[in-house]
């Protein structure tokens, strides 16, 4: 199956480079482009791609707001944010807006293509160990307190709360299974149920919820 991608970046040269790299890959296809945040939302609504590669610094509306609009309206489209990693607040904000992860613009092309495939398959972009380090950096930089506006973890069982805490700490399903004395497959089932109960798109969003609920602190 071909993964359909929309490129959202205000720099035409960046879009051209990304399009060239993707065009050389048989299982990925660029179906649309956008030079502003507003255009990204419009094009995504019209084309309903699998993945949107979203720059943060976009004209008219920024990448965070565009991400929020897209993820709130199109449940099957995932947003992968592009960043130069110079603004932790923006990156964390994009994850809270519903992004499935983020990329650093100078990352190797093969890694970028692999990340698009990973997100299209329904996984979060960031590896568990990297998730832990980066999210803690964002939270620590902001001196964040638990976000009580996120609401209680209604319907979450004691075991699922344990799993959510470990996900927030950056553990993989294998590591969660070892920690709790359960099979990795059972851990995966718990993670899937948490995604459903907490309306999380992927593992990255579960990490955010764990921080917001105060289960994990930097």
From TrEMBL:
Residues found modified as 4-aspartylphosphate: 55
Sample GO molecular function, one term: DNA binding
Residues annotated as domain Response regulatory: 4-120
PROSITE patterns registered for this protein in UniProt: HTH_LUXR_2, RESPONSE_REGULATORY
Domain HTH luxR-type: 149-214
Keywords, in A-Z order: DNA-binding, Phosphoprotein, Transcription, Transcription regulation
Transcription found in the keyword field: yes
One record GO biological process: phosphorelay signal transduction system
CDD domains in the record: LuxR_C_like (cd06170), REC_NarL-like (cd17535)
Record has Kinase as a keyword: no
Record PANTHER family: TRANSCRIPTIONAL REGULATORY PROTEIN NARL-RELATED, TWO-COMPONENT RESPONSE REGULATOR
Protein name: LuxR family two component transcriptional regulator
Organism: Kitasatospora viridis
Source taxonomy: Bacteria, Bacillati, Actinomycetota, Actinomycetes, Kitasatosporales
């Amino acid at each position: 199956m071909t993964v359909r991608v929309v490129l959202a970046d205000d720099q035409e040269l960046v879009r051209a480079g990304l399009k060239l790299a993707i065009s050389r890959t048989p299982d990925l296809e660029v179906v649309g482009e956008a030079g502003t945040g507003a255009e990204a939302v419009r094009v995504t609504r019209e084309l309903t791609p699998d993945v949107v590669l979203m720059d943060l610094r976009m004209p008219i509306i920024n990448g965070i707001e565009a991400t929020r609009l897209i993820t709130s309206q199109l449940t099957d489209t995932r947003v992968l944010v592009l960043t130069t990693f110079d603004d932790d607040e923006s990156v964390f904000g994009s994850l809270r807006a519903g992004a499935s992860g983020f990329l650093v613009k100078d990352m190797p092309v093969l890694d970028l293509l692999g990340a698009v495939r990973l997100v299209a398959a329904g996984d979060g972009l960031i590896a568990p160990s990297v998730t832990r380090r980066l999210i803690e950096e964002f939270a620590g930089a902001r001196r964040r307190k638990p976000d009580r506006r996120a609401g209680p973890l209604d319907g979450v069982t004691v075991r699922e709360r344990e799993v959510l805490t470990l996900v927030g700490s950056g553990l993989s399903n294998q590591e969660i299974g070892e920690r709790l004395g359960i099979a990795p497959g059972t851990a995966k089932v718990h993670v899937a149920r948490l995604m459903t109960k907490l309306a999380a798109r992927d593992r990255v969003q579960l990490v955010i919820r764990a921080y917001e609920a105060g289960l994990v602190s930097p």
